[in-house]
Design a protein that fits this description.
Blueprint (H helix, E strand, L loop, with lengths): L21 H16 L2 E2 L1 H8 L3 H14 L4 E4 L4 E4 L12 H12 L28 H13 L1 E7 L8 E12 L4 E7 L4 E6 L3 E9 L8 H4 L1 E8 L5 H10 L7 E6 L3 H7 L10 H4 L1 E3 L2 H5 L8
Antiparallel strand pairs: 1-3, 2-3, 4-5, 4-8, 5-6, 6-7, 9-10, 9-11
Helix pairs in contact: 1-3, 2-3
Length: 301
Amino acid sequence: MRERPVSRQSVSPPRAPSSGRWSQDRRLEFVDFRLRWDGRLNRSDLTDFFGISVPQASLDIAKYLELAPGNLDYDRSSRVYVASESFRPLFPSSDAARYLNDLLATAAELDTSESSFLAWAPSVATVPSPGRTFRVEVLVALLRAMREGTAVRVLYQSMTRPQPTARALSPHALAHDGFRWHARAYCHSRRQFRDFVIARMLEVGGFEPAAAKPEDDHEWHTIVPLILEPHPKLPASHKRAIELDYGMKDGEVEFRCRQAFLFYALRHLRLDLDIASKPEAQQIVLKNLRDVEQFVRPAPS
């Protein structure tokens, strides 16, 4: 069907809609995303993705034009809508983080047909890493315990004992260290909150009353700022490259991390290396190292 331009009205600068049906908001996000990353859109994109009629697609584009009149133009030669030179994203979901996350999901061969708005994607490669698996029934039990505020008995294989041991845990959160999934839980036997690798939970048993409340986990709720700066021994050109890599301003950038996962953050950023290591290998250092040291805890078992 031949594309015809939708009339444009002169209104105020783009602003995200505050109300309306969710289904249309979702389609407006789609329009915004495709214009931002593909630079073009036609009615068939909407009809094919959402299974709507051509008249409905026209109404959606008209609504988008009402909200963001300066964001698209109609190209009569190719019969498509194209992003204007003054395009400004209308939705936060059109940001680079969403786009790159969709690319990663595509590279991992995940089924994103219903969630991703990607139309075309470049070739993408990721660094391979060994898969970390765990028993589904363990995860189901942990989630139930968190949802209902109870404890669950597990058979856990730690790094410090040769044989797995039975433990009662009161879990309240999940966390990912970049490689593995953990359950943050109160250990009834050790009487403290700890991180437990879900893959090391071999069996799950019954449920029982919790021995602690989530708000009692102070290390989980304590946020530690990490101020990064280029390694002081790097030459100026290398420092500038590092500043660009991390989006630093005035030679530094601040990250915020839960104290409970500070150990993993430092290891992931290679900040667990001694400052005497080769500057080219470490690249960054903690500007507020003395402040952070008081929050560091040993690696979990």
